[in-house]
Amino acid sequence: MGFENKAVQIVSDFLAASMAPDPVLAATFMADDVRITFTGGRAMPSAHEITAFNAGRYSWVKKQLGQFDWTEHADHTVVYSNGTLYGEWPDGRTFSGNRYLDRFEVRDGKITRMDVWNDSAEWILSPEIARP
């Protein structure tokens, strides 16, 4: 998938590596001082921590990528990725349609900030609201 915007391509490549999961490759798209914040305000120090966190929350998880939107700023590009998550909970139940929105800041060819929101926490607390 080729994008006309370089920052969108960087985010897309990062997401592909993250879903592999290949945290070593994913980290190459991030600045050394990247700020990563997951739903609930949970700080993650690196791509490796994202993989470890997801391994504890899911048996496996992937993203069905939706669209990418971006806006240019003076010194960085903000990229939004939205879509849904699908996978399997640790107890073996499958899920799909779990909405996500990720916001990235890309500076000088590297992701410097990543913010993640999704329905997982709500679905874990109230499984009856999760749609198959």
From TrEMBL:
Limits of the SnoaL-like domain: 11-114
InterPro entries the record matches: NTF2-like_dom_sf, SnoaL-like
A Pfam family reported for this protein in Swiss-Prot or TrEMBL: SnoaL_2
Top-level taxonomic group: Bacteria
Matches recorded under Gene3D superfamilies: 3.10.450.50
SUPFAM superfamilies: NTF2-like
Protein name: SnoaL-like domain-containing protein
Species classification: Bacteria, Pseudomonadati, Pseudomonadota, Gammaproteobacteria, Pseudomonadales
